[in-house]
Amino acid sequence: MEGSGDPGDPGDPAARWKRHIVRQLRQRDRTQKALFLELVPAYNRLLEKAELLARFSEKLQPEPNDVTPSVHQGPWEKESDQGLSPAALRVKWQEEAEALRLVCGEMAYQVVEKNKTLSTLKSQLEERQSRLAALQARVEQLEEARAKEAGQVHARCALNEEQRAAYEALRARVGHQEAALRGLEEEACDLLERLVQQKARAAAERNLRNERRERAKQARVSQELKKAAKRTVSISESPDTLGDGIREEAETLVLAPRPGSLESEAGEKWKRPFRSASATSLTVSRCVDVVKGLLDFKKRRGHSIGGVPEQRYQSIPVCVTARLPTQAQDVLDAHLSEVSAVRFGPNSSLLATGGADRLILLWNVVGGRLKANQTLEGAGGSITSVDFDPSGSQLLAATYNKAAQLWKVGEAQSKETLSGHTDKVTAAKFKLTRHQAVTGSRDRTVKEWDLCRVYCSRTINVLSYCNDVVCGDHVIISGHNDQKIRFWDSRGPHCTQVIPVQGRVTSLSLSHDQLHLLSCSRDDTLKVIDLRVSNIRQVFRADGFKCGSDWTKAVFSPDRSYALAGSWDGALYIWDVDTGKLESSLRGPHSAAINAVAWCYSGSHVVSVDQARKVVLWH
What we know:
Elements: H1 13-36, H2 39-59, H3 86-230, H4 239-255, H5 262-270, H6 284-294, E1 298-303, E2 309-313, E3 328-333, E4 339-344, E5 350-355, E6 360-366, E7 369-376, E8 383-388, E9 394-399, E10 403-408, E11 416-419, E12 425-430, E13 436-441, E14 445-450, E15 455-461, E16 466-471, E17 475-480, E18 484-489, E19 495-500, E20 505-510, E21 516-521, E22 525-530, E23 535-540, E24 554-556, E25 562-566, E26 572-576, E27 582-586, E28 594-599, E29 606-610, E30 614-618
Antiparallel strand pairs: 1-2, 3-30, 4-5, 5-6, 6-7, 8-9, 9-10, 10-11, 12-13, 13-14, 14-15, 16-17, 17-18, 18-19, 20-21, 21-22, 22-23, 24-25, 25-26, 26-27, 28-29, 29-30
Helix pairs in contact: 2-3, 3-4, 4-6
């Protein structure tokens, strides 16, 4: 059977533990025998003496008739026992025997107790020996584990040394590559700066050529107008011919203005003799309408990122003087929930509103009323901002769905989705062309978009949330949660200027001449910034005016004469930009905080929207 062997074999485990037991038993016998080496002989001598005394006592018992024996002292008798009678000696011996028996009993009891103690100590010794054996086995196991761990530590130390050497090599390599990268970046910055300078020079040359061409054109028109002014027109002249003359003179009034009011010049021209009677009824507004019809043109503006020439739509100053609103003309519960965005189209008759119900509603302003036109669907989240392109054919909306949606006016479904932000998009605005847009988000980025190819052409990283953006010719202006307004050059990679304001910026509005910026902030003030000197020109405050949210929108009037904003209590506040005084405050249909306001480009209507679903048209 496997594992069995000769018990006598010294190498056999069974023989080893048997020898160990024998040695332990011998050691125990020697230890216990040493304790009783003196006790057992003494006990044996005591027993012998007791027997001897018992025999002598039997021999010395006198018979009744015997004469008292002579005193004879044996060798075992003490001198003190001489003279005692046998009876006394017997009593004495009996007492000693009794004492010896008592001593023997005590010693026997002690022997029993010692045996018990010995057995207890023996069991304890066996237990401790078993524990010692277990501990020795445990120590052997731990020694083996320690040796194994030491081997692993040695191997890992060697591996760490190899990895450290590899890390040092990689670090040196990265240092060389970083130095090369810095050199390339510096070279790229130099190239970019040179490119920007070349483009600036080319733009200056183009502007100079355009200016010369415009001056030549104006001079030519002025000469033609002088010739036309000298020509005598009869009453029998056809209306078409008269209309052409009126158009030429109106065009001259816009392109080459002279000192003095437009109205006085028009009046002087039509007071001359031999004019048609119908010409005397021509007013300034009619001249503006004619000019608007004649000068509805598109001006070339550079090239897009893709290299395809794009169109810039020149805004026509159709508003001579904005009219202050005085009363509410139409009140509608337009949306299913809070309305947060409103915007007029370029023609002033089309209005767009957006809200938390993920819908954009288009309205026509007809006879002082809002008439539903169309509902645009497809937004993935709440609408935060809406904007028309300069032609009025497209609409862009910012949503809480981390994207901006693009619609074509007249189509109900979204045309494109501008996705790329990682948080809510708070602002989406067209640039001065229908093919470029800018979005701002709570992910601390501002993105420029090429709408022809629907991709992000540039991402600007900012240190704070972006709440609103506006765009100029070559500048992007963003308002942020860290109480700062930042300016970015579309042709360069860096921030060109930072203007701090008090309170979180909630909205921005750029005047049509791009010379003034209106900001609204949570410190319950509106500020007018003169962009020519980059300084705050006016600060508007009013008793009772308070921003209702982080997305409260304020706007300029089309002629930049007034600033308009809505308050938390549903009132509209209008300030005069030139004097800085509160012009008027309107209270009426709104019972909740006003989120946004819009002033149409013709200056005749104002629309406000609030958190209670209301859209109000003011006249």
